[in-house]
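Technical note accompanying the year-one report. For the benefit of new consortium partners, we illustrate the data format agreed upon in the data management plan: each record pairs a sequence with a structure-token string. No post-processing was applied to the example shown here.
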Amino acid sequence: MKFNLNFLKLILAVFTMTLIGCHSSPDFEKLESEILDFHKTFINDHLNKNVEHFVQGYHDDYIFVSEGEIRKTAKKELRSSFSEYLNNTTFTAYKDLEKPIIGFSKDGSTAWSIVKVKVAGSRKMDDGSEKNFDVTYAWITVYKRQGDSWIRLIEVSTNN
């Protein structure tokens, strides 16, 4: 029996197209739930002053954009600044004002969220005095899938 090379190429092409077509798309409802949970954990870590858990959710070269500045911050620096911030802050409110808006890349490996939160409380200043605050923040976070979890890559924030 003689092989027909063109027939073999056709069979391989059909097989390849079948495999590509069988590739399942991500479960975006599940991924959205994961991002919402990650966001809620972020808020709870603030309220519970859980610095170590809080910092675990950040990429090693996290980028933060706010007040006309772009800051690239390593986890070690984040740990130090958030420890100081959370240890000197008492929150009376830290809650979503609107349902977060969440989106994904087609393959589900990258996500983004847009949130609007109210943050209120008091902060102990260097001179020992307390300064009250009541601020509305809105921010965009870009996340990257890492194994079975998400990690924060970039945040752009504004407040009033």
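Partners are asked to follow this layout when depositing records. The first helix runs from residue 5 to 22.
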